[in-house]
Amino acid sequence: MGGEAAPSDRVMERQREEAGREYRLETEGEHPVAALRERG
């Protein structure tokens, strides 16, 4: 809540940028929290 992303969130964002896609599968539909849904 200090305005900075958690270290784990930063790692995930970096992985998405490097791989060019989301690695998690949404097998049960979209995540209910929009910010945590699969990105392009």
Distance between the termini: 26 Å
Helix content: 25-40%
> Mind describing the biggest β-sheet?
none
Q: What portion of the residues fall into strands of 2 or more residues?
A: under 5%
| Category from helices, strands and their pairing | mainly alpha
Task: Please give the structural blueprint.
Elements lengths: L6 H13 L21
Describe the structure.
This protein is an all-alpha fold and 40 residues long. The protein has one domain (7-36). It has one helix spanning 7-19. The longest helix has 13 residues, at 7-19. It is flat and about 30 Å long.
Describe the structure using short key phrases.
mainly alpha; 1 helix; 40 residues
Short characterization:
With about 40 residues, this protein is mainly alpha-helical.
